[in-house]
Automatic annotation (TrEMBL):
Domain Mandelate racemase/muconate lactonizing enzyme C-terminal: 148-245
Cofactor list: Mg(2+)
GO MF entries: hydro-lyase activity; magnesium ion binding
GO biological process annotation, one example: amino acid catabolic process
Official protein name in the record: Mandelate racemase/muconate lactonizing enzyme C-terminal domain-containing protein
Keyword S-adenosyl-L-methionine belongs to the record: no
Keywords: Magnesium, Metal-binding
Lineage: Bacteria, Pseudomonadati, Pseudomonadota, Alphaproteobacteria, Rhodospirillales
Organism: Nisaea acidiphila
Pfam families, A to Z: MR_MLE_C, MR_MLE_N
Amino acid sequence: MTGAPEIKVGSFRVRTVTAPLPQPHKTASGTLHAAPLVLLDIGTDAGVVGSAYLFPYAAHFLRPLALLVSELEDLVKGQPLMPRDIWQMFRTKSRLAGWPGLMASAVGGIDMALWDALAKAHELPLAALLGSTPRPVWVYDSLGQMGPEETARDIERSLKDGFRAFKVKSGAPDPRQDVAVARAIKSVAGEDAWVAMDFNQAFTADEAVKRMHLLDHEGLAWIEEPVAWDDVNGHASVRASIATPVQTGENWYGARDMAKMLDAGALDHAMPDAMRIGGVTGWMEVAGLAAAHNIPVSSHLFPDHSAHLLAATPTGLILEWFDIAAGILAERPKIENGMAVPPDLPGAGIVWDEKAIDEHAA
């Protein structure tokens, strides 16, 4: 045989940074002032290098995640560059140690880097390697939790930046503020503007339903994670009690988590996180399940890989834009008239800004 299947995986390069954000991002779960990131490069004996970044969500998990990724190198180095086979090996070896949490995140990042390397070896964009035409994808700007006036100012900026769809964080003590924020967006972007709202697991099912009785008439595209991410019955109860579609999935650690939600009738939209779901391999499992149930799929973070994954997802809908790694990347998708246009590069299009990485090393 010749070609990419004979390529062997080489050494890992693992670095940590604290990437700057343009402004603090407030949610019901807390406020993110900067993004702790693990940067991963995986070499090959063919000279191509696959890249990905991982987000542990809190600074105190940065070094543990980086250490875990580094320790997993021995299981991968010297193996053929076959991401699905390597992913399945990790799943098998983690049956006793456990999969959800840092293990799934580490494997997800490794998987993303391996697919990036494989696409580069074929000199193809990631979407093309997955069998789909690379294309612009519909995108929304993901905004933090703010009052109506501040939200309106952010929407004006967002419109100038090329966005035509928007999501805001909910969870203010007074639910009437959520209504005021939704109306503030439409007062700037237009009554027909696409607007979603994210509860970030802030409420019980009863609390979420009471809040949604005020919001159900605001024409929201979806309400996201109204209750704890793994509260399947709570999601189902909320969905059965409101008119607004329910979105969930950013905290899933595989297709089985989605299957439980589907069995319970607990969601209208799916939102896998490319890292947590298990990388490209885990995402494509969820994409198949979503297609079989006609569930629209959006993304969570990681716009570089996710733009390609949505292009290869039969029910792919919209890309989330919360660009946590922008401060350490030299190439970004362009936002043009409500669409995200990936860079014309092989792989996922990740190119490090080495000077910025040195400045923000953690």
